[in-house]
Structure formats: C-alpha cells, structure tokens
TrEMBL record:
Pfam assignment, any one: HTH_10
The protein, known as: Bacterio-opsin activator HTH domain-containing protein
Keywords recorded for this protein, A-Z: Transcription, Transcription regulation
Domain of life: Archaea
Amino acid sequence: MSILVEFSISTDRFALGDFISRYEGLEAELERIVPTEDRAIPYVWVTGPPETLDELTDTLDESGKTDDVTVLDDLSVNNSGNRSYLYRIEWVLDDLDIIKGIISAQGSILEGEASNHYWRLRFRFEKHQRVAEFYQYLADNEITDFTIDSIYELTNSSGRDSKTLTPQQREALTVAAQDGYFDIPRETNLKAIGDELGITQQATSERVRRGVRNVVFDTLNLPETSRD
C-alpha cells in the first residue's frame, strides 16, 4: 500500500532551492529526479528573467555541488520577457539535503514546485515504515523547518482518499474546463490557458496532463504503482 506525503520545506533544504532563493522572481517546477548512490539528477524547469537565469546557471556551475549543469530547453513565457530553462543537473548530495533522506528511505519524488521561500513536494513511500525512516533522517540531521501538509494511503477501494491533485493542477484543470479546453471542438488551447495562469505553455501542458492522469487513476481506482 503506497503512502503519499505532501510536504513543504525551506528552499535551502532542497537541491537547487538554496540557489533559487538568492534571486528574486524565479519559480521552479520539478520534472523528475533520477537518484544514484551519491548524487541525484534533477530535471527542473526554472522560470524568470533571462539574465537572472544565466546568473543562476553560472552559479550552479561554480558551486562545487554539481558535476554537470545542462540547459536542455529554453522557452519564452508569453509576452512577459521571462524565459523558462529546463535544467538537467548532476547534484552531489550532502547530509543536509532531503533528497538523500528520501533515497535512503526508498521513496520517490512525484512532483515539486518552488518559489523564493519554500518547496512544495509530493513523495511516495511503499509503506509506513519507510515514512518513519524518512522522519528519522530529518530528526538525525536536525532538519526542522518543514511542514507536513497531508499524508494518506492509496488503496484500490472505492472509498479511498482522493487527494492526488496538487493545487496547481486543480487550478489548471479548472481553467481548462471553464474555458472549453475539453469541449468538442475545443474553444481554447494550452497557450491561452497558460496566458491566463501566467505560466508557460510547457508548464500548462504538464499540469493538465498530470492532473488528468491523476483524476483518471482515482476515478478508475487503479493502483498507484501503475502510474510509473
């Protein structure tokens, strides 16, 4: 039985967050993380002024905490002058980074979003014992600046708790539905929805796709392990 944890933590406790917090006006959305024994490879979208993104790229390169920083994609954001960079980062882990704790407890990060002050993350663990191991890691490393937003089990029963939509996914799906994105024929598109939300077309596509997928899995009572 999978356990899902929704979790908020100060940016400086999570890979990349400390660097994002140094610059005003940057937002980040985690695409996925590939873990290895001593490092993690996050794929993450960061949005902001292009000159600030370039400064962030240089800072990451020179930080000593990364082995490689690659910008895989570069997209414009509406007419704001901002851009979104898709980073692939080989990140060397230390004991104060919660990614190491998640890996050691055999957990996985499903998604995450960041602003200047905190990350909001969703984890999945295979059982309660693994959640306890993660909490013990936080305690052992005196990591206290976090909030548990919710924790719940995923089962195949029709009465299971249905909390798989993040607030951002819910907002994107609401706008999409109200503006006719799911109508036949469609009355809007992802770019227009993104303009209304103030995010990129790529970010809009990700939120709508993940949100729809989560709703389908909930409605059909499919096991969480099928989502991978």
